[in-house]
Design brief:
- The chain is an alpha/beta fold.
- It has two domains: 230 residues, 3-Layer(aba) Sandwich (Aspartate Aminotransferase, domain 2), CATH 3.40.640; 119 residues, Aspartate Aminotransferase, domain 1 (Alpha-Beta Complex).
- It contains eleven helices and 15 strands.
- Strands 1-9-8-5-4-2-3 form a seven-stranded mixed sheet, sandwiched between helices. Strands 7-6-13 form a three-stranded antiparallel sheet, with no helix packed on it.
- The protein is globular and about 65 Å long.
- Bound molecules: pyridoxal-5'-phosphate.
- GO terms for molecular function: pyridoxal phosphate binding; transaminase activity.
- It comes from Calditerrivibrio nitroreducens (strain DSM 19672 / NBRC 101217 / Yu37-1).
């Protein structure tokens, strides 16, 4: 049985080191905004090259609080793609904003930068580029558009911890970066967790208050905030795992390369963005006959998954936005053809070849 995610192998490798840190956190008994949160925030900021990092309760909260911190409010429009996890767009709605979708580029699977400008109105306030499956967006073009129309950029880095664009880490390119530490992410904890990054002191200060009931000093509240803090125990886990993130991401890239060599040209691949380094949160390929590959894998007890089977504009939750089938043909096509193979730092070369061969045999 080969699962999509293999935390057991991770624990066999670095579990002892992590358990020691969990134990220390337990003994220190400072579970809320304790020393590990500060330590992890500092190390993460240093790793990403940004000034500020703020640990929060989830990636969804990171997006919500980041949008609040840049001032998104009732009636504001925020541009993103319909080919992402729903949290990207939910966060816009939490602030009273309206998600305005722009189709993705078929090759990179990221927002099609040539289709953004036609969706900008005088209510547009921000763009959320999603570095999907770990592949950075074309940030040069997005920054150019944002500058021209005075829009903020909130990067959804939930799937791209460690990915770079022109050598700069994602989350340190736009105005704000939003990370998720959901267990399956490239940098994952053992529960829910998230983080906001920025170089802007005002955004930093606002986000800091928003995560903790609008408060800087206990029982003095400057604004209405939320309860959204990263747990000390989760921060302790992340602190250890951060040390290995480059190794983990490089191993993912090695797996990806071997998959492509093994499978060959019977499937479509996500193209790495020019000047970008993809960290392969998911290894996602395309085929009109994906069901055959998925079934063959299943017969051999190998997991696979479809991210994402329904684009956001066709979700019942977003019916009220008024989109219909055909509005975003590329996203709709990808939803019908994509499938993802197991990828993690602990997948062995022999396993990658076996999986690749099964996919190839099912599709040629
Ligand atoms: C996982 C994910 C989120 C949400 O993160 P959570 O920690 O699960 O709340 C947001 N956006 C994208 C693209 C994601 O993959």
């Amino acid at each position: 049985m080969i699962p999509m995610l293999d935390i057991k192998r991770e624990l066999a490798d670095i579990g002892d080191e992590i358990k020691k840190e969990i134990d220390k956190s337990l003994n220190a008994t400072q579970f809320i905004l304790g020393p590990n949160v500060k330590e992890f925030e500092e190390s993460a900021a240093k790793y990403l090259g940004c000034k500020y990092a703020i640990g929060v309760a989830s990636g969804t909260d990171a997006l919500h609080l980041a949008l609040k911190a840049i001032g998104i409010k009732d009636g504001d429009e925020v541009i993103t793609t319909p080919f992402t996890f729903i949290a990207t767009a939910e966060a816009i709605v939490y602030c009273g904003g309206k998600p305005v979708f722009v189709d993705v580029d078929e090759e990179t699977m990221n927002i099609d930068v040539n289709k953004i400008e036609s969706k900008i109105t005088d209510r547009t306030k921000a763009i959320i580029p999603v570095h999907l499956f770990g592949n950075p967006c074309n940030m040069d073009k997005i920054k150019e558009i944002a500058n021209k129309y005075n829009l903020k950029i909130v990067e959804d880095c939930a799937q791209s911890f460690g990915a770079t664009y022109r050598g700069v880490k994602t989350g340190n390119i736009g105005d704000v970066g939003c990370f998720s530490f959901f267990p399956s992410k490239n940098l994952g904890c053992y529960g829910d967790g998230g983080m906001i990054t920025t170089n802007d002191e005002n955004i930093y200060k606002t986000a800091l208050a928003l995560r903790n009931h609008g408060s800087y000093v206990r029982y003095y509240h400057e604004m209405i905030g939320f309860n959204s803090r990263l747990d000390d125990i989760q921060a302790a886990i992340l602190k250890i795992k951060l040390k290995y993130i480059d190794r983990f991401n490089n191993e993912r890239r090695t797996v990806a390369k071997l998959y492509q060599e093994t499978i060959g040209n019977c499937v479509g691949y996500q193209k790495e963005t020019e000047n970008g380094i993809n960290v392969f949160h998911q290894y996602t390929i395309t085929s009109d006959k994906r069901d055959k590959a998925i079934e063959a894998l299943k017969q051999s007890e190998i997991a696979s998954a479809i991210y994402y089977p329904v684009p956001l504009h066709l979700q019942n939750a977003f019916k009220y936005l008024g989109y219909v089938e055909g509005d975003f043909p590329v996203s709709e096509k990808l939803a019908k053809t994509v499938f993802s193979l197991p990828i993690n730092p602990y997948l062995e070369e022999s396993e990658v070849i076996i999986i690749g061969e099964i996919v190839k045999k099912a599709l040629v």
